[in-house]
Structures
1.
Amino acid sequence: MQIFEDSALVKCNRLSEGIYEMYLKTKAAEYAKPGQFVMVYPKDSSTILPRPISICEVCEDSLRLVYRVQGKGTREFSLYKEGESVKVLGPLGNGFPVEAGRGKKSILIGGGIGVPPILELAKALKGEDVTVLAGYRNSDLFLDKDFKKQATLEIATEDGSVGVKGNVMDVIREKNIKCDVIYACGPMPMLRAIKKYAEENGITAYISLEERMACGVGACLGCVCKTVKKDAHSHVNNARVCTEGPVFEASEVEI
Amino acid sequence: MNTSVKIAGVKFKNPVTTASGTFGSGMEYSQFVDLSRLGAVTTKGVALTPWTGNDTIRVTEVYGGMLNAIGLQNPGIDVFLDRDVPFLKQYDTKIIVNVCGKTVEEYVGVVEKLSSAPVDMLEINVSCPNVKEGAIAFGQDAKALENITREIKKVAKQPVIMKLSPNVTRIADMARAAEAAGADAISLINTITGMKIDINRRKFVLANKTGGMSGPAIKPVAVRMVYECAQAVKIPIIGMGGIMCAEDAMEFILAGATMVAVGAANFTNPLATVEVIEGIEKYMKEQSVSDINELIGAVK
């Protein structure tokens, strides 16, 4: 069930340098699962496309979105105050397959602005054998305290100011972390490294991809990724990230 | 109040359809929009065989609009006939099938496959700026346009709309060529070729380098072109290009369009089509106009 409606911004904060959160009260929260996303519609009429933002947390009647100010649309969102009416469409996409992590040892990996959707997944897998790896640029961390409530948290920073110096793969090597399943969201170089690592070690990895989108509902075919198998829509090995994704089994996509 | 219009004997309950490529085959939007409210659904371009389309990045926003270079990814006519046509037949709306190809033979092949299909009209996409081979060449040369129109008219069982490119010196010449070759209607404008450069990476934003611009920023160009074509030909026009609301749609109708298509606005607002229809009815009420047909080309 997808909802398109005016949501109410019930809480908003700056979490870190350029990173903001907003809690939107919306019926979409009833249907949302970890790894799904919503489209958020800017009001400025010169910005005609909605912004896809991952769901960080599903609260009782609201969605917590954590996003980076990247351009005009997200800058507008960061200026909103409590009480603002925000048009939202969602939940969209398939989300992470939570069941695949039951009774298994999982690593949940987030890199940069790919960190937020990992939180709701960590909540869904609470009680299982879960390690969260979060990669940041520097000591401007965000959501780290939230993760510590859910699972073991390991941190990598590019400048080495917190945790392991380097990226999330360096943490896996340095701490010799073993697992059966990997879930990940983050920049493409990170996802490529995870895909390679998973293939070499016989691990199932689910990766959440990001791509430029226009519609968010599978109509425009803007946000495709190359797939090993024929895709459901066009049968040409180009699946829609917004609809068949954003989460794919790493072995099924060519990235 | 009468909002129904007729093109080549096909009656539409209202003058609003969707712009090809922005609405899929209606399926993706059907959970938000009652497709039976629409005058017609114009489907995403379909070719003889499945097309992979371009590499990503395929879409990007620009000021007041967007660029796209999808490259006409589509499942081919066979899947379309099996899956998309039966889906649309569940609704009380007309079906306009957008047809694309790389050679005259490919266009003709798709049109022939559609001959026994329960669809109402064909829109021939000779103006996609994002496909290297052929396609756009037919839409930028009056002689080539005339030729392909004639070939398609020979085999088409449904009325034929030729979709014109704005990326030409005189669009009225293209409209005349389509009319002379027997087109039943024309639709315009397709997207305007544009480009966006990422100055930090010093790279083209789109993998295809160029893309077709759509959205509200192109509307004045589109209205002007619809007006020029309406002055040049007698066949009906489906107007499009940056229609975001009913007021925009009325500009096109007053400029001479019999129908209008809502495109990029579907991305800005999934309910845009229905809101345009409701807005047109409200406008007619306010202006005390009982028949939409009185307004077609009524600009003075």
Note: The longest helix of chain B spans residues 272-286.
2.
Amino acid sequence: MIQLERIHKTFFVARGIFQPARPLTALNGVSLATGPGEIMAVLGPNGAGKSTLLKIICGLVTADSGMVTVKGTLGWLSGESDGFYPQLTAKQNLDFFASLYRVPQQKFDQRVAQYIRSLDLKDLDKPLWQYSSGIRRRLAILRILALDQGLILLDEPTKSLDPIACEKLHAIIKRLAKELNKTVIIATHNLKEAQTLADCLAILDNGRLIYYGKSADDCRNTETIYKQLLTKNEE
Amino acid sequence: MKNDFINTSAAIVRRDFLIASSYRLAFFMDTIYIAVSVTLFFFISRAFGANASPYLKDFDGDYFSFVLIGIAFNSYLVSSLRAFGRGLSLEQSDGTLETIILAPGGLLRLLVYSSLVDFIFAGLKTIFYLIIGAFIFKFDLSKINLLASLLVLSLTTLVFWALGIISTGLNLIFKRADPLGWALEGLSKLLGGVYFPVSVLPAYLAVISGILPTTYALSALRKSIISGASIGQLVPELTFLALGAAVLLPLSLLIFKSALTKAKQNGSLLYN
């Protein structure tokens, strides 16, 4: 379970050596909650505060005020990086994280064997840099599953993936929540992706939560809200 | 707890060895660099060493022995200083920091384990310096007091490890600028007695030299390796290093934790 109550975060952006830093409100009183079996999409244009929200949940950034409650183990996947060492093979990477997260190797190997086929992965013996972005994302999902992490934070996970790899990853993310009962929060700026995946939608604009609800409830309404938001930001 | 330490540190050491083994050419070039440096100073010593002898009475008067220990152990000290920060930059540049931070044990502990491989490599390099010196250029190791040398090296490692943690903490705040590491490395080379004895320094520079841990570490290492000095004969240097470690270790942890808190507040933890 992940619950956020009235989260505020302001960063101070440097403007030069002799000018005082400018305050930038990244999150302004955001409250959200999600639980097992649910996919929540945090939607917003660039700079809306999506990544900051995810980083606050996993403790990479501290909130100025508000309450963060996290019950369960957190897994992280970002479109910027898959969190693997490129020089090591996939197997060496996975084994390293098993030791780091103190998961018994036998149990870890069993889970790898259990999920590897369903993630359409075969060979784990190549150095990471030899895999495509799509395969590396799926390897990161395999790590999350083998480490048995219950709360999964995905920061723009389909960034730089081709449409087929995107589709594959979407199907996997859905299975994480629906079949394996994981709690998933996905940050994206892609409305279609959010609508395809999410049970629950939160739209952020300049750190403010402007919409929060079940995405299927009011599909057209969210579409209008988000399109208006993008148009406003472009102007 | 003990098992966690062994398993986690073994996993990190294994990872770092695997990563290092993927850069074999760099390792080979480091080895060549060491051999070239030792050879260079051997010939400098042959050409000009006699002039230095009056200043080297405490170290049996031989410039090659003096400078070999200086460069070999300075390389070890610099690696000790950089070990901690290198671990953090590796995680930042590979994009693994998020996954590392979410692991049990906390960032500080994982970075401590991560510095172990650097110490191992730095130790091996130092041994390689001494082996080349001994086998090719007849550097005399017959008088070495091994126990005293190891004690000096252990205390020195703790001091430089603590300074490395402070330097990494400052680096978290100031990013690419590393004022402490830069000052220590530069001042140690200039005033710590790496290439020439500190007795040649004018009084105002000798004051700075007198507060550098490198000065005490190298002086004690030379005395124990070249002249076979006992632990009793090294009390002044050992006291300075022990006091330094006792003060700097808790201080370094405090500074690092504050810097980590600050980096999380300003959202810059993931970037170098």
Note: The longest helix of chain A spans residues 163-178.
3.
Amino acid sequence: MKVTIIDYGVGNLRSVQSAFRFVGAETVITDSPDEVEKADCLILPGVGAFGPAVKALTTSGLTEAMTHAVFSRGVPFLGICLGMQLLADKSMEFGEHQGLGWIPGKVLSLNDKNVRLPHIGFNSVGGIEKSSLLNHLPTAAEFYFVHSYHFIAEREQDVLAVTKYGDQFSSIINNGNIFGAQFHPEKSQSNGLQLLANFLKLGAKM
Amino acid sequence: MAKPRLCFTLLYADGIFYLSRNFNLQAVGNLDWVMDNYDFESIARSIDELIILNVSQLDEDWEDFCSIVSRLSENCFMPIAAGGGIRGIEQVESLFISGADKIILNSALYDAPDLIRQLVAIYGSQSVICSIDFRRLDGSIKTFKAGGKIETEVALTSAISSAVNLGVGEFYLTSIDKDGTGEGFDMPVLELAYKACSLPIIAAGGADTDDRLAEGLHSGFVSAVSTSHLFNFMGDGLKDARNGLEAEGIQMSKWNFEELVI
């Protein structure tokens, strides 16, 4: 299964690519809606602010292409960090912005006054549901986070794992073939590589 | 809670990596030297973050710096921050393309605050680290720019609040007095900085053993500690340092490449 990494202008795509290569996947980085539409497996990385990201995806035709691949063809999809937040209906980062609306929810700032923001560093990710995405990983395995906003899912069943930083927030969300991780698996040493390997195995069965 | 971070800082200029003492640079070796003297894979798997600083005082060869970032980031599965001498957005773009996850700005805080504001708008606060170099002079704490060469008129706490207002996501604070001395971090200043903002702080300057790194983390004032001592951590030294921090009772994050099932 070839991994297609969506390039919409910002962020370090190379590290996502080298992590997937490390776990044995063939990869391609593309900004072509055509290639995205035909992909076997899609990764939406993300660094940057929500508003410009949505705009970049939409004006380039990538939103439409991704939507087609994910909903009509059911290809496995993983959104990373901002790429996960983009799945929400809306975000309140620098004003209100419409998201993809693939998993019901909204994106708000982490706002616990007892912790320093952004949330930066390795932190525990605790699975709520047993998922093969977390196979071969210790309970509460640690992954690297760097963010100030978080996804508030409307439906409990879409939350696959949670993390505590001051308040608790959703660190992995999932609905069918759509996955989102708030942390950066490509920057989480072997724990992240394991999760990506698990995602590929899961995806191969979809 | 987020775990404390152990960072390793490499100082690079025009083909050479440097050891720094009070910001006086001593040439150590080129990339081959680093690769010969360090088990780089082991380093990459023993730290939470790699920081690569361009310390060139010349009109730097940016492409060369980017190619070093690119070479060092190969097979590094942890975050990489890079900076030093950033004057425009194009330079930042090329750093990100070369494998950096975060960028570090220093002189821009005093000379080009708008650049920082723009970078925050494009890449988000979490991608922008503000580095501040300081030293104690005449009973007060002065900030310096241009690799410690030029004293600014801005007090440390004012520099911190300006950076916070510009939207940076993190601080990298280096004591020029303590840099390379092994005397430990300048704790009173770190405490002052801790109280002056609510952002994560990376402490630098003064720690070249695991005891000194542990002191920084035990203080509770910083989220991360960094060392740039090129001689004290050769071979497997950073793995030992990480184990040393654990032995000092600091809970570091854990992973195990041996157990990876692909």
Note: Residues 62-73 of chain B form the longest helix (12 residues).
